[in-house]
């Protein structure tokens, strides 16, 4: 984050939270945040296009939803296997370098795929191998950009940054799937070539972030090489990071919710893509499913910032999950395109505020030197059980059809909503102004909690 000082020195989160006499510049006026935004946006757009077109390429190559689902599950398992190692590496090395290397690897693999498809049909084993390589790359490097955000943004602006990113994500979701469908109409090679170019842009943005991120890491050390402020020291290593997060009741509860919700949402989207493909819908029509999700997120992002700042985050999470679960259950009762589109819009109205509350609170709670592992752990928990989603979707489509399969996945999100309402750890999460304040319940330290931080009433 750039400050109002001319030298653009970055303060640590703990020190910034303790003393901040000058007003903070808005996020859009901070050059380092804009660089980060370009790197993250191009990476997300390339991933969105790739994530839409590659399942259809696999399905066209195999002709079987079950086999295509198995190949997708293999890719998810490969991604999950290296996520935690990537997060640990991000905490020990230069994050900008990891963003650069990850983007260059993605550009190389997708360019090779594009050339292979342009020269002729690639065999299924080669497609599977390339997909596994892409998933390994995504798992190892994918959480680095989010971890870098904690280095660039003031702690008090973290919730606002997360909410703003949700609006950005919704715009990309609106465009990535239809754009992927249009590009796929020109051929898989052209679509993958565009993905490669976007990865190159992300690499250039990561290169531009080298100095700001090094300055952020340097400012986290005092003259004796120790951490400034009152942040808790956390040993390096994957297991140390996992123990730290799972020993905190609220962080542990959020990680469980993340897992359950992602099984339901990703299973539902996989069922929609495969089911509409089986109905011989055109690629751009299939892409409208993601477009409807993006419309809901875009509308929801317009009010996400005010919701985050006005209501207690725990109650906001519970209500958002309830709306998401209710609308997702209704999708499966009618597989008409208009009905499913309307329910998708309704479902994802609450997602921006939900993601901003959960992601912002989680990142505000973890120490500065554990941001990489924290982000990788969130992603790992989201992906750990996801290999089951495409498998269940494939078998469900063949055995019971699209409607019951959609209802089945909607029930997962309903379970998450019930868990959130029944969990006092989730309900007591305070508003963003109290996220940074240390709490004995959260950290196990003796630092006093701000008055009524966990029980402040909603306004």
Explain how this protein is built.
The chain is globular and about 55 Å long. With 459 residues, the protein is mostly helical. The chain has helices at residues 13-18, 31-62, 65-92, 95-119, 124-141, 144-152, 158-185, 188-208, 210-219, 238-246, 249-278, 283-310, 313-331, 337-347, 351-365, 371-383, 388-399, 402-422, 424-427, 440-443. The longest helix is centred in the N-terminal third of the chain and has 32 residues, at 31-62. Residues 1-21, 221-232 and 438-459 have low confidence and may be disordered.
Helix content: over 70%
Shape summary: globular
What structural class should be given to the helix and strand makeup?
mainly alpha
Biggest sheet layout: none
Can you count the helices? 20
Quickly list its features.
459 residues, mainly alpha, 20 helices, disordered N terminus
Secondary-structure map with pairings?
Elements: H1 13-18, H2 31-62, H3 65-92, H4 95-119, H5 124-141, H6 144-152, H7 158-185, H8 188-208, H9 210-219, H10 238-246, H11 249-278, H12 283-310, H13 313-331, H14 337-347, H15 351-365, H16 371-383, H17 388-399, H18 402-422, H19 424-427, H20 440-443
């Amino acid at each position: 984050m750039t400050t109002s000082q001319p030298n653009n020195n970055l303060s640590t989160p703990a020190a910034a939270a303790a003393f901040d006499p000058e007003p903070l510049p808005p996020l859009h006026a901070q050059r380092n945040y804009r660089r980060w935004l370009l790197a993250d946006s191009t990476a997300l757009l390339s991933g969105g296009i790739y994530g839409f077109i590659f399942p259809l390429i696999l399905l066209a190559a195999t002709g079987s939803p079950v086999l295509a689902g198995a190949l997708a599950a293999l890719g998810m398992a490969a991604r999950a296997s290296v996520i935690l190692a990537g997060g640990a590496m991000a905490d020990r090395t230069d994050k900008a370098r990891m963003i650069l290397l990850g983007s260059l690897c993605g550009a190389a693999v997708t360019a090779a795929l594009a050339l292979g498809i342009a020269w002729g049909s690639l065999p299924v084993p080669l497609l599977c191998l390339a997909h596994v390589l892409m998933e390994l790359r995504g798992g190892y490097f994918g959480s680095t950009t989010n971890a870098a955000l904690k280095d660039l943004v003031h702690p008090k602006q973290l919730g606002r940054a997360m909410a703003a990113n949700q609006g950005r994500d919704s715009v990309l979701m609106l465009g990535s799937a239809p754009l992927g469908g249009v590009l796929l109409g020109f051929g898989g090679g052209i679509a993958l070539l565009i993905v490669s170019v976007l990865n190159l842009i992300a690499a250039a943005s990561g290169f531009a972030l080298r100095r700001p991120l090094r300055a952020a890491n340097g400012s986290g050390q005092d003259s004796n090489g120790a951490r400034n402020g009152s942040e808790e020291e956390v040993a390096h290593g994957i297991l140390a990071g996992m123990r730290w997060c799972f020993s905190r009741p609220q962080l542990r509860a959020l990680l469980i919710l993340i897992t359950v919700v992602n099984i339901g949402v990703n299973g539902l989207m996989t069922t929609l893509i495969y089911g509409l493909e089986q109905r011989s819908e055109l690629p751009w029509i299939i892409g409208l499913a993601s477009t409807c999700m993006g419309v809901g997120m875009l509308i929801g992002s317009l009010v996400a910032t005010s919701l985050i700042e006005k209501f207690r985050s725990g109650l906001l999470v519970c209500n958002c999950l309830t709306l998401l679960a209710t609308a997702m259950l209704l999708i499966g009762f009618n597989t008409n395109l208009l009905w499913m589109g309307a329910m998708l819009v309704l479902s994802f109205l609450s997602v921006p505020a939900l993601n901003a509350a959960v992601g912002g609170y989680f990142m505000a709670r973890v120490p500065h030197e554990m941001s990489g592992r924290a982000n990788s752990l969130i992603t790992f928990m989201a992906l750990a059980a996801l290999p089951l989603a495409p498998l269940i979707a494939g078998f469900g489509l063949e055995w019971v059809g699209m409607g019951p399969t959609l209802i089945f996945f909607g029930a997962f999100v309903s379970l998450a909503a019930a868990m959130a309402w029944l969990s006092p750890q989730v309900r007591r999460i305070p508003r963003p102004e109290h996220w940074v304040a240390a709490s004995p319940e959260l950290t196990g330290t003796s630092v006093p909690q701000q008055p009524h931080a966990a029980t402040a009433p909603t306004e």
